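Appendix C reproduces, verbatim, an entry submitted by the partner laboratory led by Prof. M.T., so that reviewers can inspect both the input and the predicted structure.
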Amino acid sequence: MSIQQSSVVVLCILIGSLALCSGGCGPKEQIAKYKIRKDKSDFLEKMTQATPEKKPVESRMVVGLVQAAQDCWFFKVHGPKSQVTATEKQWREFLASVRIENAVPKWETPEGWKMKAVSRMAASAGGYANFQINSEDPPLLLKISRLGGQQDLFQNATRWRGQLGLPPIARQDAQSQYVKTEYADGKMILFDHSGSGGSGGMGAPFMGGAGKMPAGHGKKTTPNKKQDTEIPEFTFDIPDGWQQEQDAPVVLVRLFKKDAAEQIAISATRMPPELNDWNTNVKQWVTDITAGKLTEDEIKQQTKRIQIDGVDAQQILLNSTNSEKPESIVGVMFAKQNFTWFVKMKGETETVKASMSDLDTFLNSIKVK
């Protein structure tokens, strides 16, 4: 027999031996140890299934607006729809009790409500009082704020609808967003809507939120997009050492000094063109910081003429007469693109004086187009 034939014989013997072992070698029950789990495919399928997205919580916003003399007062409740609806009897009783005395609102506080502090920053932007309605976490608040002058109902409705994730409306439909009530001697109108989108935050007062500051430096930012062709774009530079507050209440733009956030702030506001009476606005600022009284001649003498984005502007520095709490306001007003624009720097007197160059940087960077 040749070597090749011997190899074939050996190979056949090995194959036969393996076949015999596979058919009868060892206990049969051991074979079960190597069976594949029947649920393996189901297990892998479950592991690879995407986690379903959480649906946004539906929220409800109720804002009462009352125009009184030179001020417009806001009474706002905003939170999960279930909370706002569950407490409706309480906040409606509150709104029904509102009355205006000497241009200031008065009310009856419902039993169980707790007054919460208004931060200095919120107060400088119009915050007046906060009430905690319930004890849930987070608690539901009714916030009261004040903004001077007649309010543009379309701009406010657009902003609030944006916070609720609702689609924009046309200017001619603004009145349909509000309901007239008997509250505050019939002077209060209510914005009462619900939605499932939006940030749920306070938001900027006019036409959406402020733009995000680019990383690394406070370069130009656009706080409002042209959601309506009638609304101009407002851009600016953030001075070094300052930061923009996102979703600032009441104002269009709000900046605060990083190392003195509680002592000073710069804000910008857009108002209807008819609110361009300089003396009236100066007197309001005087009241804000208890700076005594100024005659029209004194206002004229203290008013400084400057230029902002190629147009004439007026500027004034006001100091409080309160020696225990010395505050100052630098107020600026100019008209452009069919709106009146206000810039205000308010804070502790020494901090305001030390920040005048920062205000100049902000004013010189403003562009309205």
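Residues 329 and 346 are 4 Å apart (CA to CA). Additional entries are available on request from the coordinating office.
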